[in-house]
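Supplementary Methods S3. Complex input for the fe (ii) ion-bound model.
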Amino acid sequence: MSEYDLGRFVKECRERIEENECPADCVEKIAPSMSRLLNGDKSFLEARHYRSDTEHYARNAIYIDDAGELSLFALVWLPGQWTPIHDHGTWGVVGVLEGMLEERSYMRTDANGRKALSGVELARGGVIMLSPGAVTSFVPNPDHIHMTGNADPSRRVVSLHLYGRTMSGFHIYERETGTRKWVDVSHNES
Ligand SMILES: [Fe+2]
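Predicted complex, serialized as structure tokens:
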């Protein structure tokens, strides 16, 4: 059998989505596929997928389906580049290709409801260090809240991010103002 590649990964993801309505089931079934992709034929990754930006981490589209049910990006994090604190509004599966991706988790502790846009209070949670080959995932309702980035001053991080929707924006949190707001995020086309 030929080596596992992007085509097989996308096909498996589609099948898992068809079979599993529950987001937690989706990520449980797709996480092993992401692991196989990280260890398989990575010839689908081209120079354009490794584009970086000195201003902020770069999002390079690899695959976005027409139905809006699936999108895959290569994210390139230069030293010191981080997301804001955010949630996703969907499930996702992340795999690390290169470098050490760090995730810092948060928990919402106010009584205003998890979707309220003001009066937000967050408690800091734990930290996860993800080395090449590692796979992590998240589910919505309630949304996982975190920030992700590259704390290593000496090298870039490259990671694959699969989402259960076309990922064009997310909610970000500002601890200083106690707010949660939607922001659009851009990406480089493939
Ligand atoms: Fe995230």
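The helical segments are 6-19, 23-39. The first helix runs from residue 6 to 19.
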